[in-house]
Write a structure and sequence with these properties.
alpha/beta
């Protein structure tokens, strides 16, 4: 595979490598002065789209399960994950606990406070990331999150996936785009940093629809964005649809070109936390090419170079390189 040219040919300012988009790694290194990694945690929270409050069964692509965790068990999770990840990144200067599984604001404020602050108090913790839904943000929770943001670097991650309500209905998302925007603004108005999740390849969506979702998110100017590939996982309702031939998954070339199109409409300052993902081998049904994560990322880099493009190219003139 042809090697992508390095920094000397790269016009994008928020990069010190061949990447022509604002990577999470670049942001963390420049924010904290060294390698920082997230530590994923499962606090055992449920979801209003599972328990019947908003819907049942969850999003059709989602595998879920939950066992309520105590603050003490979360600390154990943190330490175990830190030990594993430190073997890969032994030079890390700090860590960010990441409440990842299910809906991590779906509990009384007292429970959220106990669980969040149990890990925030650990040595070398630099911030906190919380994944949740925009329809589980009552005022008292938003006020507490604002309190947390006043003490540490907080990032709240909201799953949008698509702005198209017809797709949201098909995948049983459980809330409308208008409801997403309402929750987004409740947090943004309190000065809380936000990350928005998008999924490419949802059933029935065209490339134009995926780019439209990216444009809508770009207009919000979130702190960061995650771009995911749809994974078909064993045991999910979507897996049954796929096996019945009701839709097909994206090919790698189409996916990479779509991601490049989306990057071109994102503000350069927006941090791109992810451009792909790799499903667990024992759960993944399709697309199997997604397991080659670094091939996908390299293909995106090469396509950006081939286009002489960069993040935000469709929004502004050619950027000036920052001084090194």
């Amino acid at each position: 595979m042809k090697k992508t040219p390095q920094r000397e040919t790269n016009p994008f300012p928020y990069s010190d490598s061949n990447k022509r988009y604002h990577t999470w790694d670049y942001y963390l290194r420049h924010r904290y002065g060294g390698k920082v990694f997230k530590i994923p945690l499962d606090a055992g929270f449920s979801c209003p789209n599972i328990d019947g409050t908003r819907g049942k069964g969850g999003c059709t692509y989602c595998r879920y399960g939950f066992i309520r965790q105590t603050p003490e068990s979360l600390v154990r999770q943190f330490e175990e994950q830190k030990e594993l990840l430190s073997r890969k990144w032994p030079d890390a200067v700090g860590y960010i606990p990441y409440f990842q599984a299910n809906t991590n604001t779906y509990a009384p404020v007292e429970e959220l406070r106990e669980k969040y602050e149990a890990v925030l108090s650990l040595p070398h913790v630099l911030g906190l990331s919380i994944a949740t839904r925009a329809d589980t943000l009552p005022d008292e929770v938003c006020d507490y999150l604002s309190e947390v943001a006043g003490k540490t670097d907080l990032m709240v991650e909201l799953g949008l996936q698509t702005i198209h309500d017809e797709t949201a209905l098909r995948i049983n998302r459980g809330h409308t785009t208008a409801e997403f925007l309402e929750g987004y603004q409740k947090l943004a108005s309190r000065g809380i940093d936000l990350c928005v999740h998008l999924i490419n390849g949802l059933p029935g969506e065209t490339r134009e629809m995926m780019i439209e979702s990216a444009r809508a998110v770009a207009a919000l100017k979130p702190k960061s964005v995650k771009i995911h590939l749809l994974h078909i996982l064993r045991g999910t309702p979507m897996a049954k649809e796929y096996e019945r031939g009701e839709f097909s998954v994206m090919e790698m070339e189409d996916y990479c070109e779509t991601v490049c199109d989306q990057l071109e409409v994102m503000p350069p300052e927006t941090v791109i936390q992810r451009v792909t993902g790799d499903g667990l081998p024992d759960e993944l049904i399709a697309p199997m090419w997604s397991r080659k994560k670094f091939v996908v990322m390299n293909t995106i880099d090469q396509e950006m170079y081939r286009r002489d493009s960069w993040q935000g190219k469709q929004l502004e003139k050619r950027p000036e390189r920052q001084s090194e």
